[in-house]
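My current task is to audit a protein record that another person submitted. I have pasted the whole thing underneath without changing anything:
***
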Amino acid sequence: MSDFHVRAVAEGEQRACLEVLEQALHARPLSDEAWSKMARSWPAEGKFAAYDDRGTPVGIASSFDTELTVPGGHNLAVAAVDGIGVRADWTRRGMLTAMMAVQLEDIAARGVPLAALHASEGVIYGRFGYGAATYGKAVLVERPRAKIRDGVGRDGVVRFVTPAEAVERVPAQYQRFAGERPGFVARPDQWWPGFFDRLVTGNDGYRVAVHSGPDGDDGFVVYQTIDMRDRQSPDRGALLDIREMHAATPRAWAGLWRFLLSVDLVSAVAGRGRPVDEPVAALLTDPRAVNTTEVLDDLWVRLIDVEASLRARTYGAAEPVVLEVLDRQLPDNNGRYLVGPGGVERTTAAAELRLDVDTLASVYLGHGFLSHLAQAGRVEVLDEAAVARADTLFHTPLAPWCGTFF
């Protein structure tokens, strides 16, 4: 008999459940002030917890409903999984598997076709049907070596806004960016207090700068200044570390980079989780001033309803392919799908490619190529000619990118 049970979180239990998550992720203990900022982003709805025999939460699986942009620009309902954790003294007892099963079943029962998360470890979520669907790169731009080309990024102005102004104005501005890339996640009202407001009104020194163009505010950047001086380099300039940056137009994007690279007493500008195809080097007279220091998986996607998810996106110009999908957690997804520019339907035709649902998820938003996954043994090729067609169908010219932490 199990020594824990999983059930929906009741109203009033949220803080205790968040404390379980914070402890599992080795975060600082949750203060009253921190909880007051986080509470509005942490409702009981969408949460399942594992409880011991005394009714104390020892594991948590949380999500909230929002929308995710898929190739072609359609915004599809998604359960954004914003917390999975097990208390350290309760691990290795099957608790994670039990909570994930309950969460997946709930999302499916509510008719939400997708789930998505940011994985703390790369080895956990594949076995639950998630695939790494977007990637982000870390860049380090050297100053003063980095100089933006003449005339670029001068079409607007950049100004600082106070934390209170950022909390009031940035959410509406963010709506201008919807649909620009596959992988874009909408930010519902409940997201902002715990993830944005808490950051910019906190004590970590984050600054918010807004770009304005001919049509008004069209971009913003949130960054932190880190002192890089030490005994060996007492005159070394600071590091500007970008937390997030979004722009509605290429001109606004260039203007924000020009601003960051013009700040005095700075030795470098860094940003993690930037789009893998962001052309920062092309802005500069010396492209070698930009160093890509890492490329890491970002958003992991789970196709809860394979048919609905496949139908929601568009495809490249190629003849259709018959995919046979295997899903161990949600067997209703098992079957063959005819996928092509004209649409998607279930079929009894012979499969050309056979793959698990997590492999399908990894190319769903347009990242990578099925041919690479076939080479790695993650796709069973039953018809060699289908591989190239599948690459054309699924791959998108614009790299998918999320740009939102949750």
Observations:
- The longest helix spans residues 95-109.
- The domain at 5-112 is CATH 3.40.630.30 (Aminopeptidase).
- The chain has a mean pLDDT of 96.
